[in-house]
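Data availability (excerpt). The following record was deposited with the supplementary files.
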Amino acid sequence: MMKKRRMEFVFVIIMITLVYLVFFTNVSFLSKVISLAIYMGMILITVFSLMLENRTAQNTLLWIYILVFLPVLGYIVYVYSGQLFLKGHLFKSKRIMDREVFETMSRKTGKINFSKLNYHQHHFTHYLDRATFTPTNTNSKTKILKNGEETFREMKSALKKANDFIHMEYYIFRDDRLGREIIDILIDKVQEGIEVRMMYDAMGSITLSNGTIKRMKEVGIRVHPFLPLKSGLYNQKFNFRNHRKIVVIDGKTGFVGGLNIGVEYLGEDEEIGFWCDTHVLLEGEAVQTLHAVFLLDWRYVSGEMLVMDERYMKPIPADGDGLVHVAATGPETERMSDHYYAMISCATKSIWIASPYFVPNQAIRTALRIAAKKGIQIRIMVPDTNDGFLTQYATRSYLPELLRAGAEIYAYQKGFLHKKVMIVDGDLATIGTANMDMRSFRLNFEVNLFLIGTESIQDLVAHYKEDLEDCLRIRPVEFYKRGIAEKAKESFARLFSGIL
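Predicted structure:
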């Protein structure tokens, strides 16, 4: 694998050299012809390798166009977007280790009592047990936390009560007011003798200053970046990011959901305004599975093997109701899309979705259309204004076909909608870090909770209804009247769906 990475890196250098010789030097005409022929030969080799991967025809043709019509740049985008290794080769060692650990955990978990589940709950739980390596947990309790104020109040309180260890993993961790408050708590706990580990995504937390990182390390906090940018270009991991948000305290309490660490998640960014989001406080046996996700990521970045240590992996039951399933996905598995599809397929009455980035693949669009045609209520909540041009208009490009099928589309008006929630029939739900877009499905490391028959689902339902009051329903007739300029923007943005 390392040899192949070196070869691709060398290919880039050779291509740049060949283009330079052809267009920017006075070498002989024959030399230019030979250089051009070598360049085309390298592109043909790459195209042939691409065809052998048996992707969809649309995907294959798109990358062939990029390789052929964008000299050098197209090849660089192809290599460093991770396209060469989307079949799982790049993270093979991590995938194997994760699978072994989760399968061991599943074998230790008792059999699930399906007698209390209705038909579609039984059907979906059976799917999760077969499709994921993680166990379905009983004796677990979930509490839904709405928006930043409630989430960070609960989180800071729990952090202050830690008496053994604190483990944190975030896509975005800023050293603004909120970030400094969290860091100060971590420093206090380290000085009390509490063990603290913190992992952050190198791209998402790019604004986290070296001074802050040094300060944490000096007091004894063990800090590691996930996929450092300085090595990302060479090893072709640059485009794969860790989008997970995990906090585990003493193995008893866990936090997971949509909120990163930054004042914008409290609604204090004047440009963004109010921030609508959802997080979960988790207790009981499911915390062990969430913790395993963190510890396997920690092993990947630090080499420290803790996931087999009983100190960290001892299950601590809690009085709960229903079932909780922690599902971790990433470029090495690409299964979150399947999980969402399976949930949609189980619906008999309603499917409620809230996602800040709604760029669904063909399978999910088809499942939603069919469900709507069957008379199942489809509600999809998206931001009225997104945080990027491409995500804004790519999302809108997928709305017409769903509106025609009878889906209800709601644009959130109060601020920025960032919650990632799907509720099926009011008794099956998922909440976590994964958006309903191609990046979450194929490129990012994500983690979601799937809730089956828990009381907390009713809180998700209640919060969804509350947020609907701050939405404007998009009516088909009005939406179809949008101008040609808007439609052109949507069509252009849709071309980039594969990387959004």
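Summary of structural features: DSSP finds 20 helices and 18 strands in the chain.
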